[in-house]
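To: structure desk
From: M.T.
Subject: fold request, one chain
Message: Could you run this one when you get a chance? Sequence is below, nothing fancy, just the single chain.
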Amino acid sequence: MILAANLVSEDAASTSSSLEEAFPDLSGNPEQTLTALGKFFNNIWEAFLRAIPSILLAIAILVVGIILTKICVKLMSKGLSKTKLDLTVVKFTTQVTKILLYVLLLTVVLSMVGIPATSIITVIGTAGVAIGLALQNSLSNVAGGFLLMITKPFKIGDYIISNGVEGTVSQISILHTRLDSVTNQAIFIPNGLAINAVVVNNSQNAERRVDVDFSISYKDDFELARQTITDIIKSHEKVDKQREIFVRMSEHGESAIIITSRCWCKNADYWQVHFDLIEQVRAAFIEKDIEIPFKQIDININALPDNKSE
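Reply: Done. Structure tokens follow.
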């Protein structure tokens, strides 16, 4: 008990000494110290009361600014969509404008609560440099997005092959390009890779050449097969008859003669013409008894002589 009392008395003494160090006049002039503390907290309260109108005004400006920003972005998107600009440029410009408007709104709101605009700009600049050093790859993607807008190797709606993937371009944002594959998978390519990689754009040109190879056996009549393929190509309604139709023997294969056919059609009709030619030529070959060979393996087994022991 005596030990506990001694500890309590020591704690009280240390607390008293700490208060005296913090407020030297507390023991000598307690009334003046309490008055000073009261003025201090009163000044804080008055400053808070004076700031309430600015805080409420800043909140109101923030809410109204967000609403106006959304309206401006929507009107801008509708207005640009009615121009002759590509959909890719319209969406990219809309995204950049939206970000800039939000940064401007944030600057105005912070200024309303008493933070100087110069300080805000300085902080934004410093933060931008720090973020830029930390996110160099992301900045390269942003630069790649702007370069995609300028060079236009592809646009929304084009079917492209790039970086080992392929699909229809559905979105070009600030950081990445989105492709929708034929199996409806979303593929995201960083803009930095998209601008530096080889891109095969299957949709940019108005027409495409359809190349299809057919095979016949060595015993069949080549001229008959060639004429059959030519007639089918010429009769197809979506084949461009003004351009050359090419049907020639291209290879002596291991088990077949390869006939290469080439014709032209509109880009949108490429796959229909491709599959139609394969199906129609096969049906015509069957009708005319032209064999479509396939690889076969002949195995000859020779009987070994019996080894009779003497």
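Reply (cont.): The longest strand covers residues 207-216. Let me know if you need anything else for the meeting.
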